[in-house]
């Protein structure tokens, strides 16, 4: 598979905080021209040397404007100039009991975490296909592989994008495009302050939900750094033959090995207990 090269252009969604910011810096330091996206690019704090574009994955109209934004930065999308590395990072962390999740919340999390990421990918694939090289990396979550109570909508959105990615991997490899998913575990990025929460505080799930969320926040405060995740993301960027799945944090090698040996309910029980559930 043809390599992508320093000096070419990488696009990172959600590049002003957390994993997105860290991977934008890693790509910049590796010699790529880096374009990042933000919902508020004019007020956002971009890493030095990273150009910001406006993009709101919750808004299909914003995604439709992305090709024009890329052209305004001199990217034709053809073989002689376009994005050759795409890191689909921007997303929403949603929480709530399945019985209490409103339709609007479900539509939002799948629009941002799944549909929006696929649509952004579609906007740059023609250029990659014409140049016959590229790397597309989707930032998933270990919760896409290991479901956790009260995190069903989030985990399902990440599992859905993983399946899209695995299917696209076969479709695109003949054009020199590598597609991979990176599934982080617990990460210390301050995400707990930005979660969306849908729960009736006086309802039947409130007590257990609160326990889960408190333990989730604690686990993430002790998690790996965004820079460690960025280092993992760089592996499929630079690999001659990128693997389909990379996982990092939360004892990922042990977790995936155990999942091959233990019944599904046993793995679910281990994860539940780690989050204070019985």
Automatic annotation (TrEMBL):
Q: Name one GO cellular component term.
A: membrane
Q: Does the keyword Nucleus apply?
A: no
Q: Which InterPro entries does this one have?
A: KR_dom, NAD(P)-bd_dom_sf, Sc_DH/Rdtase_CS, SDR_fam
- What is a single molecular function from GO for this protein? oxidoreductase activity
Q: Which Pfam families match?
A: adh_short (PF00106)
The Ketoreductase domain covers 8-190
Query: Which keywords belong to this entry?
Result: Oxidoreductase
Q: Which family does it belong to?
A: Belongs to the short-chain dehydrogenases/reductases (SDR) family.
Its name, as the record gives it, is Alcohol dehydrogenase
Q: To which species is this protein native?
A: Corynebacterium frankenforstense DSM 45800
């Amino acid at each position: 598979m043809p390599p992508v090269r320093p000096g070419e252009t990488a696009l990172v969604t959600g590049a002003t905080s957390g994993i997105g910011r860290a991977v934008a810096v890693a790509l910049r330091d590796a010699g790529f021209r880096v374009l990042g996206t933000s919902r508020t690019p004019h007020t956002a704090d971009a890493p030095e040397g990273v150009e910001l574009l406006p993009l709101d994955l919750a808004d299909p109209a914003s995604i439709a404007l992305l090709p024009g934004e890329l052209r305004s930065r001199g990217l034709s999308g053809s073989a002689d100039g376009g994005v050759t590395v795409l890191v689909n990072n921007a997303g929403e962390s949603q929480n709530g009991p399945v019985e209490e999740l409103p339709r609007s919340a479900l539509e939002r999390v799948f629009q941002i975490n799944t549909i929006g990421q696929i649509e952004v990918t579609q906007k740059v694939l023609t250029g990659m296909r014409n140049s016959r090289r590229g790397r597309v990396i989707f930032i998933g979550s270990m919760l896409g592989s290991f479901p956790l109570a009260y995190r069903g909508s989030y985990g399902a959105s990440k599992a859905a994008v993983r399946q899209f990615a695995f299917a696209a991997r076969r479709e695109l490899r003949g054009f020199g495009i590598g597609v991979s998913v990176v599934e982080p575990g617990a990460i210390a990025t301050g995400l707990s302050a930005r979660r969306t929460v849908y729960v009736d505080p006086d309802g039947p799930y409130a007590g257990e939900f609160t326990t889960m969320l408190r333990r989730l926040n604690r686990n993430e405060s002790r998690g790996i750094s965004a820079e460690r995740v960025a280092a993992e993301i760089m592996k499929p960027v630079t690999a001659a033959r990128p693997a389909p799945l990379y996982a990092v944090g939360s004892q990922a090698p042990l977790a995936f090995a155990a999942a091959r040996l233990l019944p599904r309910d046993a793995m679910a029980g281990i994860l539940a207990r780690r989050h204070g559930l019985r």
